[in-house]
């Protein structure tokens, strides 16, 4: 989230799309309703009419997988109606930048596509540069190759009639949504977007969010109170785990993972550090040398940074070697893995194409399952269609403590790092995750010390002072290591910081190895003043109180900033565009309100400091599948062509050529999607064992419209069989008015939906995972599976 949960109340319009917050994020919905109490317009765009829809002023139905068509139509509406925030777009976006002559777009494909590899040569999308190496600009926005004109040209095809043909959303509903949301383009108004997996789990997932960021830039909603692009995480620490580099292509603090082609620290720094000659660009990533050096010293304190860098794991080029989820299990199926740690997860149910995942697990030598209960992953070998005598995988189960039995921090969707203390002690022989890691690492280090190995030095030399005299894990030591220390006496300005003291801000990290920090964005979270995330003060200034910043409640990265890019909320003189809900303001000598995005005086630096040019990106040449979002159908879809272009699918989508996909296949005529219910969580491992939750939602169901039920002779409560290219499962039919048929390009298309909280292990009559049905295809930027749009058949059992 660029903003935070409480800030939702400041919005004049809340667009919820790809999310169902009333049911799946009910605590957040309190702040949505607070916005409504203040006069905000609430909009819900979803294939189903849900409890969220029931609380909204406007509901618009949409077929799963048509989000870019819907949002592209909004971009055209904003531009055609001249509703964009001109001062904001002219001064704070790359609208005026001139794009190079190599850029083209034809028939749904951008220039530079290698059809054999499915990869783009993104150098074809570069800006035209001047003698100083900076993009050429046209402040009048009239040059036909400037971003603004290319944007208008790109979305000229997205008229109401065509968008309705593709999305199934009636034109009158499109106009209602566009008109209501575009009204936030005024300086004193703001609109926010709330999205979740309904946007991300597509082969165009990243571009779904990019499209909304374009809208937010056109309307001037970034950096504003009640604005921003706000992701609703499905678990309390998803944000924190991503910050700490859960994903393979980043290391802590969203730095790039080193590549094999970067064998030295100097090679990495050169490749990862952008250069800008614009004196008004903060170009924040120019600090990469400080952040990587401090990370290396956090991991290998007693080793020089050049040697420590050689210890870092290196990726092959991302285009030739992919370590994302779907690829990992595909390689596992091919026998390329010996072992697998399934830590706090249940991939036998949570992963797309669950039958493939389960089959892949049979190819391992060993599997370690770390969880609070036995689950389908640890028990896969005795599950449906499995012959235990033919499974060679040896499974180990390590029982771990539950959340309330351990101490440490979580970082919620709004980037608030909050400290939680241990309640009851872990039961029996269970251990907190940190303690399990400590035991394992102690054993691994001992083995390397005894037997050596192919590359022992990174293990033997790692800094590992995170426990006490035994093996116990000390979360405070880890939190301090993540924050970072001065390792030598360092003088900054007129103050000397002694070796061994905690670094008070990432601005003080050094590139020479004299500081450590396990994650630069968390530097300032645990200082000599104490554990900032443990704070629980409601104190705030009158200005802060007006929008609900609560700066002394917990701690927010970076440097306790609550609203990212907040210098875009003021004009060149530092005066708020929306004085009635100002985020920051220049009082003549200093900034007041939130922690500003850099302490420069008004007008000294462009506001979007993480971009090399300092501007919001209407044109984003860094994405794998194009600088402008383009509508592509899901890899499984009910139509053979669409009216936007000749390119049906995302040409760069992650897929496996040997796996079949249903496109306009009469055997699988219905669009399927997955979602959550309030009563269950994730794969249901904790909630399925809770009697009163299981009583409320006892088994797998299939939600379908009254029209489809009548067509197939299905009554409410009937048992149905759902099948697809990858397998089949049973479900109980819920016949509902919440789903209606769509008219897509002149034909009737039905959509059905399934919760993904079940598995075969418990309860015995609960059914199996909805992910048996979902396909092994994913977004080219992240590899996230496309579980929100796939093709199925439904028939009465």
UniProtKB/TrEMBL annotation:
The main location class comes to periplasm
Any one GO BP annotation for this protein: anaerobic respiration
The Molybdopterin dinucleotide-binding domain extends over 673-790
Name where it's found: Periplasm
Kindly indicate where the leader peptide sits in this chain.
Answer: none
Superkingdom of origin: Bacteria
Keyword set, alphabetical order: 4Fe-4S, Calcium, Electron transport, Iron, Iron-sulfur, Metal-binding, Oxidoreductase, Periplasm, Selenocysteine, Signal, Transport, Tungsten
Where the record annotates domain Molybdopterin oxidoreductase, the positions are: 2-442
The protein's required cofactors: W-bis(molybdopterin guanine dinucleotide); [4Fe-4S] cluster
Question: Per its record, what are the GO molecular function terms?
Answer: 4 iron, 4 sulfur cluster binding; electron transfer activity; formate dehydrogenase (cytochrome-c-553) activity; formate dehydrogenase (NAD+) activity; molybdenum ion binding; molybdopterin cofactor binding
Entry's Gene Ontology cellular component terms: periplasmic space
Which family is annotated?
Belongs to the prokaryotic molybdopterin-containing oxidoreductase family.
Q: Which PANTHER family match?
A: FORMATE DEHYDROGENASE-O MAJOR SUBUNIT, TUNGSTEN-CONTAINING FORMYLMETHANOFURAN DEHYDROGENASE 2 SUBUNIT B
Can you name this protein? Formate dehydrogenase, alpha subunit
């Amino acid at each position: 989230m660029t903003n935070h949960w409480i800030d939702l109340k400041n919005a004049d319009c809340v667009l919820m799309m790809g999310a169902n917050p009333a049911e799946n994020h009910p605590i957040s919905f309190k702040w949505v309703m607070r916005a409504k109490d203040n006069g905000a317009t609430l909009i819900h765009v979803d294939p189903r009419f849900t409890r969220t829809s029931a609380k909204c002023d406007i509901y618009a139905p949409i077929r799963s997988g048509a989000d870019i068509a819907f949002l592209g139509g909004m971009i055209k509406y904003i531009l055609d109606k001249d509703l964009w925030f001109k001062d904001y777009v002219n001064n704070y976006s790359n609208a005026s930048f001139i794009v190079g002559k190599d850029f083209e777009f034809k028939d749904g494909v951008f220039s530079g596509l290698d059809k054999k590899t499915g990869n783009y040569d993104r150098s074809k999308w570069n800006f035209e540069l001047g003698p100083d190496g900076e993009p050429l600009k046209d402040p009048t926005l009239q040059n036909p190759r400037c971003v603004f004109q290319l944007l208008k040209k790109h979305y000229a095809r997205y008229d109401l009639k065509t968008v309705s043909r593709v999305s199934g959303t009636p034109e009158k509903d499109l106009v209602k949504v566009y008109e209501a949301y575009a009204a936030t383009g005024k300086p004193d108004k703001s609109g926010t977007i709330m999205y979740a997996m309904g946007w991300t789990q597509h082969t165009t997932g990243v571009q779904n969010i990019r499209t909304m960021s374009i809208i937010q830039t056109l309307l001037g909603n970034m950096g504003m109170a009640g604005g921003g692009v706000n992701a609703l995480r499905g678990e309390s620490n998803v944000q924190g785990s991503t910050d700490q580099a859960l994903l393979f292509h980043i290391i802590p603090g969203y730095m790039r993972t080193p590549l094999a082609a970067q064998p030295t620290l100097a090679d990495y720094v050169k490749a990862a550090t952008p250069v800008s000659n614009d004196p008004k660009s903060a170009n924040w990533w120019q600090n990469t040398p400080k952040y990587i050096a401090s990370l290396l010293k956090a991991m290998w304190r007693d080793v020089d940074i050049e040697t420590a860098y050689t210890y870092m794991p290196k990726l092959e080029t991302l285009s030739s070697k992919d370590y994302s989820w779907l690829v990992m299990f595909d390689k596992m199926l091919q026998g390329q893995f010996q072992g697998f740690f399934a830590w706090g997860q249940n991939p036998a149910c949570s992963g797309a194409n669950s039958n493939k995942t389960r089959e892949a697990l049979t190819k391992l030598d060993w599997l370690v399952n770390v969880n609070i209960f036995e689950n389908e992953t640890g028990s896969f070998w005795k599950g449906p269609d499995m012959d235990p005598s033919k499974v060679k995988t040896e499974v180990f189960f390590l029982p771990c403590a539950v959340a309330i039995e351990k101490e440490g921090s979580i970082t919620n969707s709004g980037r608030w790092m909050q400290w939680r203390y241990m309640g009851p002690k872990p039961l029996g022989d269970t251990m907190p995750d940190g303690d399990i890691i400590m035991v394992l690492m102690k054993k691994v280090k001992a083995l390397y010390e005894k037997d050596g190995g192919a590359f022992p030095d990174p293990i033997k030399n790692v800094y590992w002072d995170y426990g006490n005299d035994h093996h116990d894990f000390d979360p405070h030591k880890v939190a301090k290591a993540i924050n970072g220390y001065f390792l030598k006496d360092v003088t900054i300005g007129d103050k000397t910081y002694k070796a061994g003291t905690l670094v008070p801000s990432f601005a003080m990290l050094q590139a020479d190895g004299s500081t450590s920090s396990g994650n630069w964005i968390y530097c300032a979270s645990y200082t000599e003043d104490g554990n900032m995330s443990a704070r629980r003060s409601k104190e705030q200034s009158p200005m802060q109180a007006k929008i609900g910043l609560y700066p002394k409640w917990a701690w927010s990265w970076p440097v306790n900033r609550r609203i990212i890019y907040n210098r875009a909320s003021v004009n060149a003189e530092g005066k708020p565009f929306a004085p009635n809900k100002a985020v920051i303001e220049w009082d003549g000598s200093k900034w007041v309100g939130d922690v500003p995005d850099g302490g420069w005086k008004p007008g000294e630096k462009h506001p979007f400091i993480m971009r090399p040019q300092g501007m919001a990106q209407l044109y984003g040449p860094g994405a794998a599948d194009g600088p402008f979002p383009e509508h592509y159908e899901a890899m499984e879809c009910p139509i053979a062509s669409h009216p936007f272009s000749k390119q049906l699918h995302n040409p760069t989508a992650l897929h496996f050529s040997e796996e079949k996909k249903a496109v306009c296949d009469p055997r699988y005529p219905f669009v399927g999607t997955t979602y959550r219910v309030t009563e269950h969580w994730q794969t249901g491992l904790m909630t399925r064992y809770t009697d009163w939750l299981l009583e409320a939602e006892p088994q797998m169901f299939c939600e379908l419209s009254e029209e489809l039920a009548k067509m197939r002779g299905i009554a409410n409560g009937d048992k149905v069989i759902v099948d697809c290219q990858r397998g089949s499962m049973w479900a109980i039919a819920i016949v509902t008015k919440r789903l209606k048929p769509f008219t897509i390009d002149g034909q009737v298309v039905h959509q059905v939906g399934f919760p993904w909280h079940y598995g075969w292990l418990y309860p015995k009559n609960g059914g199996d995972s909805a992910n048996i049905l979902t396909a092994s295809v994913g977004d080219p930027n992240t590899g996230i599976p496309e579980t929100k749009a796939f093709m199925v058949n439904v028939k009465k059992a």
